[in-house]
Amino acid sequence: MASEGGRRGRGGAGGGREARRASRQSGAVTTAKYITRNIPFTEVCSEEQLEIIERNADTVLAEVGIEFRDDAEVIDLWKKAGAKVEGERVRFEKGMLQELIKTAPSQFTQHARNPAKSVEIGGGNTVFAPVYGPPFVRDLDQGRRYGTIEDFENIVKLVYSSTYLHHSGGTVCEPVDIPVNKRHLDMVYAHMRYSDKPFMGSVTAPDRAEDTVAMCRLLFGEEFVDQNCVVINLINANSPMVFDETMVGALKVYARANQACIVSPFIISGAMSPASVAGTLTQALAEGLAGCALTQLVRPGAPVVFGMFSASMSMQSGAPTFGTPEPALILTAGAQLVRRLGLPFRSGGSLCGSKIPDAQAAYESAHTLMPAVGAGVNFMLHSAGWLEGGLVSSYEKLIMDADQLGMMQRYAQGVDVTEEGQAMDAIREVGPGKHYLGCGHTNRNFETAFYQSKVADYGSFEQWESEGALDTAQRANNRWKKLLAQYEAPEIDPGVEEALKAYVAEKKAAVPDASY
Amino acid sequence: MASEGGRRGRGGAGGGREARRASRQSGAVTTAKYITRNIPFTEVCSEEQLEIIERNADTVLAEVGIEFRDDAEVIDLWKKAGAKVEGERVRFEKGMLQELIKTAPSQFTQHARNPAKSVEIGGGNTVFAPVYGPPFVRDLDQGRRYGTIEDFENIVKLVYSSTYLHHSGGTVCEPVDIPVNKRHLDMVYAHMRYSDKPFMGSVTAPDRAEDTVAMCRLLFGEEFVDQNCVVINLINANSPMVFDETMVGALKVYARANQACIVSPFIISGAMSPASVAGTLTQALAEGLAGCALTQLVRPGAPVVFGMFSASMSMQSGAPTFGTPEPALILTAGAQLVRRLGLPFRSGGSLCGSKIPDAQAAYESAHTLMPAVGAGVNFMLHSAGWLEGGLVSSYEKLIMDADQLGMMQRYAQGVDVTEEGQAMDAIREVGPGKHYLGCGHTNRNFETAFYQSKVADYGSFEQWESEGALDTAQRANNRWKKLLAQYEAPEIDPGVEEALKAYVAEKKAAVPDASY
Question: How much is the pLDDT for B28?
Fold first, then answer.
């Protein structure tokens, strides 16, 4: 980590430092430190199976290749690096990309404006970030509707209020009430102003990525940004085996600025990859290798995260399906493959296809989240709030999922075998046929021994019924309203805030509204 | 396995053999073979952590000991085996119990009357059995109410109709409309008549266990039963560190008859064990070792399953809580410990505390089921239908959970790396920027490539809304009604059926009704 002094807003004297101190004092909201796991990685593939997939990915890269569209600069980078280029198709000799990615760090810090909330991405660490990308929002009161900047800010505030979401995320919903060519400014500002957790930048056009970097320089200081990662950004491949101009354009901006890219094949198996787990892994490995290596051609040493996002497909409707066994196998095997490459890994989340936050949503989300934590996913986008295949950002589901993240955080700590954890004094004190409710060990450990949900109902049937027989979504509805009502923005240096506001206003005024 | 000839009902000529042939022909219902895993076991403890717990369990057994209450015969067995006995307290030298359990099989077959549905318990196998024990039932139409024999039979029929429940289970609900001292006869009969899957026997009194064995002899033939396991039985410890007369009485009956016992510490951590994961594991290991070893004193070689059932506890209400991280750690570490003993392991299920089949129920169930499958649980009771901390057997949740079991069955198959699984022909055929929907590999694999849920909704939002915007429980409600309407009982040899009916009638007539 760079020295604290380097990270100073260009606004008032003292800049970010004062803001950070203020933030530390603002009190009520606690955020758990990112997870540092104390349990082994779950594996689903043998060495032999992994080698087959690696060999096949090498074959795909050498024989089929990857297309990089509409970007002469990138084609030129590949030529200079020794790849075989025919038009926009680039082919790679065996081992070339594995060699190129060696300059990328296996673990890096993404700095938050509140240093206590900076996260380590890679290794045995897991960082939870919220849902990304939905055009719609849903809550129990107003139902399903297009997202607005008010919804966006509300979700940022709720994520800030969550103990177990370590990261503020990016496009927590699309604020469709703001013109497409300007909404990135409001989104980045909201993350910077209404939260002090690390966040994501815009990738929908290279100049919007430039705006993100510029605003980061205002918040963190220019020198600090050049030497440290302060924003992480989602670069999707257009599977199969294509990277387009837009995504590659944003990748270049961020890599040049030494900021982190997540290069993610986004795959619906059977449509965008073969209808098989091993075939999907092969293609995703090839695509991700090419994208990650490109960041290193742009700026060796720039942080990059290897991502895999996969859904299976419904035979009946052709729709992507989530929480099914094949994506769980893909993400777990994917983590094994990427660990062998020495890069941080992104996958998982609380993904589901359900239209509402019901049992289907919960089964599907749990059957993505739990494998992802077991597999050792380092950066987990969509950890909370995702509904309807990613079309909807749900207020209630955000709360429900965040509660599950707390459980996962505890689970990943593993088994405490300190003397207090062993509790031999309790067993000796109590003995056969007695109970542990009043013993010394229980009295010492009662409050922290077990994860306590804030969403689940643990009362008796009669009590639950007398309290209105609420279901989980209704309790979550009560909770998000309470959290929003209690929300207080983290303090920020007024100079920095002014500079950010001025930047947004100036950029918005400079061009007419556009819907693309 | 014994020869088929040995398993013959004493009823008509040909007995069981004809029944089996008929059953095989009865058609429509398919049951998946029990799971034989093709993925590694998930682990949460290191060798060092396991050794600490094992050492502590040895200390508990040597210093604190276990109480066996009101059973002079058992105390005598322990004395003869060399344990240190003081009154009802029995203490064990280090290693004594580990030595005794060596005569128990590490894996055994539980035979079903339909041999195609016999299950292998132990090793890399997992067998799913439904919920056990609830006094109440719940469905969306009639709400929560006491269970009846009609409910019991309905649930047996639904489990029979389920592809992924490999086992008919035992007390799928308490039929409270039948006197306590007679209902075991109707329950065992229902499993034998309305299903052809393996099942569980009565443990609520030694003579009810004797009835179970007697009925098994009618169904399978005396000689076959003496040499083979045809019924499995749940023997709970009274944690902490007590076995009572009732449970030990049933254990003795079944072990003597060479039938399988599941010896399970049933623990709410913080009340019945220390408020810590390692402390609970230590106590459960000690209790289970003593109970499992006892089966081997009764009849060396009798099949026995080491069980662990644990819940955490709510700080607010003192209620047991499920689907929380601590029980997941306990069951996974428990599987590691029991694997080292060389015994089959029972734990897990689709446990939850929720009052209704909503998101809480699904999150909690998934966060028990998935770790249990990962851990390699061999016999998984409560795999489907459990609600409200085990007080309620839910028609809808049975359907919803069974769907998840199908996902787990697929997940445990792991990654197919056959040539067809690798799908290199598809990647070569399609190439960059195209789609896989019509390619040869997809056409060959489309129907089986991905698990297809029968409960989840995968349609568009508009389609889902036009179909009534049903939630998961409502869809499950439709499905169980359809399955019950379609149900056809598997055929049975008429002579065997008559003999079973006569036994039940005779035993019921012999004593007055009693409520204990």
Answer: 57
What is the torsional sign of CA B221, B226, B228, B231?
Answer: positive
- A43 and B45: CB-CB below 8 Å? no
Nearest to A67 by CA among B43, B55, B160, B430: B430
B62-70: average pLDDT? 97
Question: Cβ neighbours of residue A92 under 8 Å, at least 6 residues apart?
Answer: A61, A62, A65, A66, A83, A84, A289, A290
What is the number of other CB atoms lying within 10 angstroms of the CB of residue B66?
A: 26
A-proximal residues of B, 320-379, CB under 8 Å: 321, 323-326, 328-329, 333, 353-367, 370-371, 374
> Which amino acid is residue B386, in one-letter code?
W
A317/B460 CB distance under 8 A: yes
Q: What tens digit of pLDDT does each residue of B255-277 get? A: 999 999 999 999 999 999 999 99
Across the interface, whether the CB atoms of B312 and A451 are under 8 A apart is answered yes
pLDDT of residue B315: 75
Strands B125-128 and B35-36: antiparallel
CB contact under 8 A, B364 and A456: yes
| Cα(A254)–Cα(A231) distance, integer angstroms | 9
Cα–Cα distance between B247 and B329 in angstroms, integer? 27
Q: What is the largest CA-CA distance in chain A?
A: 79
Interface residue B72 vs chain A (CB under 8 A)? no
Comparing alpha-carbon positions, the chain A residue that sits nearest to B54 is A422
What's the pLDDT tens digit per position in B440-472? 999 999 889 999 999 999 999 999 999 999 999
pLDDT tens, B415-434? 999 999 999 999 999 999 99
Taking only Cα atoms into account, the Rg of chain A, rounded to an integer number of angstroms, comes to 23
Which chain B residues contact residue A311 at CB under 8 A? none
Contact B156/A at CB under 8 A: no
- Model pLDDT for residues B334-381, shown as the tens digit of each residue: 999 999 999 999 999 999 999 999 999 999 999 999 999 999 999 999
Q: Which residue has the tokens 């007080």?
A: B391
Q: What is the enclosing helix (H) or strand (E) of B68? A: strand B66-68
Nearest-angstrom CA–CA distance, B393 and A443: 34
- Secondary element (H or E) of residue A410: helix A395-411
CA-CA distance, B282 to B293, in Å (whole number)?
A: 17
Tell me whether residues A367 and B473 touch, CB distance under 8 A.
no
Contact yes or no for B279 and A361 at CB 8 A: no
The CA distance from B495 to B15, in Å, is 7
Quote the CA–CA distance of A317 and A315 in Å, as a whole number.
Answer: 6
Closest CA to A111 of A248, A223, A264: A223
CA atoms B45, B46, B51, B52: torsion sign: negative
Rounded to the nearest angstrom, the minimum Cα separation between B331 and chain A is 11
Say whether A436 and B271 touch across the interface (CB within 8 A). yes
Instruction: Check whether B23 has a pLDDT greater than 70.
Output: no
With beta carbons under 8 A apart, name residues in chain A contacting B314: 450, 452, 458
* A325 neighbourhood in chain B, CB within 8 Å: 407-408, 410-411, 451
CB B260 within 8 A of CB B295: no
Computed on alpha carbons and rounded to an integer, the radius of gyration of chain B in Å comes to 23
Partner A contacted by B461 (CB < 8 A): yes
DSSP A238-279: -SSSEE-HHHHHHHHHHHHTT-EEEEEEEEEBTTTB-SSHHH
Average confidence (pLDDT) over B221-237: 97
Single-letter residue type at B210: E
How does B149-163 read in b/e, with b if 16+ C-beta sit within 10 Å? bebbbbbbbbbbbbe
Region B481-498 average pLDDT: 97
Residue from A54, A86, A363 whose CB has the most chain B CBs within 10 Å, to mutate: A363
Residue ranges in chain A whose pLDDT is less than 50: 1-27
